[in-house]
Write a structure and sequence with these properties.
single chain; 4 domains; 6-stranded mixed sheet; 5-stranded mixed sheet; 30 strands; globular; binds 2-acetamido-2-deoxy-beta-D-glucopyranose; BXL; glycosidase; carbohydrate metabolism; hydrolase; EC 3.2.1.37
């Protein structure tokens, strides 16, 4: 708790004291005639020239996130820590013009989990591209850095994880971001539980953020490498957790997003994580950091850099990982393993003793130079040392300014990012959209009163989720009701996580009576509830997956009135089983963390002004799941053993409290994690990954295959040219997989039928490769847009052989012979799935030979 508090205060201080950005003067400054300022020299030579000018003492000043620069050389201080998860966000490197107009705000797009639910990588690209445009404009004004520690690509394996959506507690930044119109902070961060989804998201996001031109627009950072998805659970924290992961799970599940970042996109930076992996802290783990990241994934071309998570190196000390005995030893272990810059949380000593590490001979000058080369080559590549007047490609970004921030286009994109991520989870008898109740235009509820109830109906910064900046505005459902001139009554409902009942059972709770009064007078009840950052966020995992009891009681009381009742759900997945089973709950719509326009968007969708077509990027687990499975248990496959036999997953040197979950899970087998291993029929799965209803009926079919019989060799035949396909796992499936989607509504249907997007999800299933076999595996997806009533659209879904392959216990990715099928969609909405079966014969082919771990020092 003390740590938690200290951390938050420290960040608040850091944000207030953000240093901003100063470009070196490459025209008149001391560096002007150095190669580092010569835009015609190679980035490697430019970085080397700079490092060569620095004395050892100056070098040692520049290996932490708040780098001091070198005044003698006119090299300004530089804050490596800026954030831009779903918009330019407050962080030590970023500040807003709190008292001004220009740069007073930045567009806040839907947070990652919501954007992931849209299953549209073109949209992800556009959002990220808009973010980096705004980021460069902020940087040019001296208000932000050029390195952004986004995205978070850890698979969201456990629904309790506080950063799965990624959301940071708004309290962190409250002091600095009240601008008179509210607060903005939002962390729902990861693109869900499925590696294929995350890989697609990461590639699109990174391409948008870093740009696809000749120069990097900004440097992005894939985090947190690796096997990080626990904040604070039953006495175990991210700062001391040792994730014990089998090689098979590591390669198949925890690492693929990082492979995409490093090997396939050549991301500018990677952040190593707090936790240890199989006994060695991630930032000191030479197997992960060198054998895999730099060597196996060939992440060397641009001398890209690794940053530690903030205070991760301090965590090596005896009170946490007990990997290093002194701050100097910790710094040396990190630098020697390939960590290039160490993030420190200001105000939270002991600081990393980089200087001591050098003085004591624990780290060589060559290692220090290697780190500095990587860091400054990164800055060279984003044009930090290019005079704005130079003709270099990176210098062109120097012209971005305030007029490129919060543009109308970006506002529209923020709206779309929220709308496209909405997922419809229940809709009895087509209650939604309510537009036959509320004709539009004009939207007046002539004689039709509406009750709007719940904690996120009113303006609420929590819609932004974590890692947020200051948005230009925050549109709530109530703003929407005003805008559309609804005849509504508002009641606040219970606080997000209020206790079940007042101390005295009969004592009024303060929220039920006003809510029932509003609902009693209404024809339609709209409840805006769910969880927010106060329930799960950075440094805060959830204990329960159930609806907070006070909210559930109120929803049930509202349902007993027997009126149309729509539940719009903010935040994380909760076990919706009680709502799905209640015949009087007409509809459930999940919005996640939808960003600055999210409240308005949810109301618009309820009224039919947007048609939800997103899909769950995570499994919605039953509440019991939290009692059956330990957060520390990194296994994925179901297992008769309730726990890893050797106590794997337990925190090092800490007694596990005999909490409720430990006791209940003592005897039951481990049920498995994610939709790949937990069958949809399991009582522990309430709604499957990929679930999402529509306002219309679709029929979706796979196109015809010219052949249903392959050999492993024939699958790979098109990729024999190893220059074009250096990595066989990226080889495309040789037959075009097309989907044909028909909107079965007829123009003569009530309201003329609804035009809607449709997300095609293609899974592979079958008994091939090592046992046990996954239920199915996502291999491709595509969002088809605006399919009108009576229309049919076709699209091609890209499938790569590596995603069809399986991983063996040594981590090798292998294409196996066997009987396969492609399965389209998840079987919902009264629609079955469409399937195509095919045979693969011939020999097993290893697509990726995995380097085996060596003993750690
Ligand atoms: C750079 O070189 C030019 C030409 O030799 C000289 O006039 C100028 O003073 C030098 N600038 C610095 C900062 O040394
Ligand atoms: C901050 O806003 C004020 C007033 O709008 C403006 O004069 C000033 O230039 C802004 N600062 C920056 C860095 O743009
Ligand atoms: C947000 O920032 C933009 C660009 O700097 C500015 O034009 C606009 O007035 C700001 N909006 C608000 C609400 O301050
Ligand atoms: C690995 O990187 C090196 C250096 O950039 C490059 O020459 C080589 O072709 C890369 N290997 C593959 C398989 O891409
Ligand atoms: C920490 O590690 C040191 C050195 O390996 C060892 O002597 C000490 O007992 C360890 N401390 C704890 C609390 O395990
Ligand atoms: C749905 O429609 C059926 C058949 O018309 C009706 O029996 C049922 O009561 C309706 N349910 C709701 C929640 O409106
Ligand atoms: C709003 O609803 C109430 C209750 O039915 C009704 O008395 C009132 O006339 C309505 N107001 C408008 C402007 O329609
Ligand atoms: C559903 O509404 C009807 C009134 O229409 C009521 O009689 C019934 O008890 C309600 N059921 C639930 C589960 O609230
Ligand atoms: C292999 O691919 C490379 C790159 O696409 C191409 O330049 C080369 O001509 C190809 N070689 C053959 C033999 O097709």
């Amino acid at each position: 708790m003390k740590l938690l508090l200290g951390w938050k205060l420290a960040i608040a201080v850091a944000v207030r004291g953000a240093v901003g950005l100063e470009y070196p003067d490459c025209i008149n400054g001391p560096l002007a005639n150095s190669t580092v300022c010569d835009v015609t020299a190679s980035p490697a030579d430019r970085a080397a020239a700079l490092v060569k000018l620095m004395s050892v003492a100056e070098k040692l000043d520049n290996l932490v996130d708040m780098a001091k620069g070198v005044p003698r050389l006119g090299l300004p201080p530089y804050a490596w820590w800026s954030e831009a998860l779903h918009g330019v966000a407050l962080s030590p490197g970023v500040t807003f013009n709190f008292t001004g107009i220009h740069f007073s705000n930045a567009t806040s797009f839907a947070n990652t989990i919501t954007l992931a639910a849209a299953f549209d990588d073109d949209l992800v690209y556009q959002v990220a591209s808009a973010i980096s445009t705004e980021a460069r404009a902020f940087a040019n004004a001296g208000l932000a850095g050029l390195d952004y520690w986004s995205p978070n690509v850890n698979p969201y394996k456990d629904p309790r994880w506080g950063r799965g959506h990624e959301v940071r507690d708004p309290a962190l930044f409250t002091t600095t971001i009240i601008t008179g119109q509210g607060v903005t902070e939002n962390l729902d961060q990861t693109p869900g539980e499925d590696p294929v989804r995350i890989k697609g998201y990461a590639k699109a996001f990174l391409t948008g953020l870093e740009g696809d031109g000749p120069a990097r627009k900004v440097i992005a950072t894939c985090k947190h490498y690796a096997a990080y998805d626990l904040e604070r659970w039953q006495g175990v924290t991210r700062h001391d957790f040792n994730a014990v992961v089998s090689l098979q799970d590591l390669v198949e599940y925890y690492l693929p997003p990082f492979e995409t970042c490093a090997r396939d996109v050549n991301v500018g930076s990677i952040m190593c994580s707090y936790n240890a992996v199989n006994g060695t802290p991630a930032c000191a783990n030479t197997y992960l950091m060198d054998d895999i990241l730099r060597k196996h994934w060939n992440w060397t071309a641009h001398n890209n850099y690794v940053t530690s998570d903030c205070n991760a190196i301090q965590n090596f000390l005896p009170s946490l990982h007990n990997f290093s005995q002194t701050p100097a030893e910790a710094a040396a272990a990190a630098l020697n393993a390939g960590t290039d810059t160490i993030c420190e949380v200001p105000g939270w000593p002991p600081y990393t003793d980089v200087a001591g590490a050098y003085r004591q001979g624990l780290v060589s000058e060559a290692v220090i130079d290697r780190a500095l080369h990587r860091l400054y080559e990164g800055l060279v590549r984003v044009g930090y040392f290019d005079p704005p007047t130079s003709a270099s490609p990176a210098a062109s970004y120097r012209s971005l300014g305030a007029s490129d921030v919060s543009t109308l286009e970006h506002q529209a994109l923020a709206f779309q990012s929220a709308a496209d991520g909405l997922v419809l989870l229940k809709n009895v008898n087509g209650t939604l959209p309510l537009r036959d109740v509320i004709p539009f235009p004009p939207v007046t509820l002539t004689g039709r009163p509406v009750a709007i109830i719940g904690h996120w109906a009113a303006p609420n910064a929590h819609v932004l989720g974590g890692y947020s900046g200051v948005p230009p505005y925050l549109l709530s459902p109530l703003h929407g009701a005003e805008l559309l001139q609804l005849n509504y009554t508002y009641a606040a409902g219970p606080p997000v996580a209020a206790a079940a009942a007042a101390a005295a059972p009969d004592a009024p709770d303060g929220w039920t009576a006003p809510a029932l009064a509003a609902a009693g007078a209404a024809d339609v009840i709209l409840y805006f509830g769910g969880t927010d950052l106060s329930v799960a966020s950075e440094d805060r995992d959830r204990d329960s997956l159930a609806w907070p009891p006070a909210q559930l009681s109120l929803v049930e009381a509202l349902a007993s009135l027997g009126k149309p009742l729509v539940v719009a759900q903010l935040g994380d997945q909760l076990d919706d089983a009680p709502l799905l089973a209640n015949p009087n709950v007409s509809a459930v719509l999940w919005a996640g963390y939808p960003g600055q326009a999210g409240g308005l968007v949810a109301l618009y969708a309820i009224l039919g002004l947007a048609a939800p077509a997103g899909r769950l990027p995570v499994t919605q687990y039953a509440a019991d799941y939290a009692r059956r499975v330990d957060m520390t248990d990194m296994r994925l496959r179901p297992d008769p053993a309730p726990r890893p036999a050797d106590g794997r997953g337990a925190a090092p040197r800490r007694d596990r409290p005999a909490g409720e979950s430990s006791a209940a899970a003592a005897a039951a087998p481990f049920p498995g994690r994610t939709y790949r291993w937990l069958p949809p029929s399991s009582p522990l799965s309430t709604l499957p990954f990929g679930f999402g209803l529509h306002y219309t009926r679709f029929r979706a079919r796979l196109g015809v295959f010219p052949t249903l019989s392959f050999t492993t060799a024939s699958l790979l035949a098109g990729c024999a040219n190893s220059t074009a396909y250096p990595y066989p796992d990226l080889c495309p499936f040789p037959v075009t997989v097309s989907v044909w989607v028909s909107n079965l509504a007829a123009p003569q249907d009530p309201g003329g039928g609804v035009t809607s997007d449709y997300v095609a999800l293609v899974f592979a299933a079958g008994e091939y490769g090592p046992r046990p076999y996954p239920v199915k595996t996502l291999v491709g997806y595509k969002r088809l847009r605006a399919i009108g009533p009576g229309q049919t659209q076709a699209a091609v879904v890209d499938i790569k052989l590596g995603d069809l392959a399986r991983v063996d216990t040594n981590g090798n990715r292998i294409l196996y012979p066997g009987r396969y099928k492609f399965v389209l969609d998840v079987g919902q909405d009264g629609n079955g799935v469409d399937e195509v079966e095919f045979d693969v014969t011939g020999d097993e082919v290893v697509l990726d030979v995995w380097p085996q771990p060596r003993a750690q020092p």
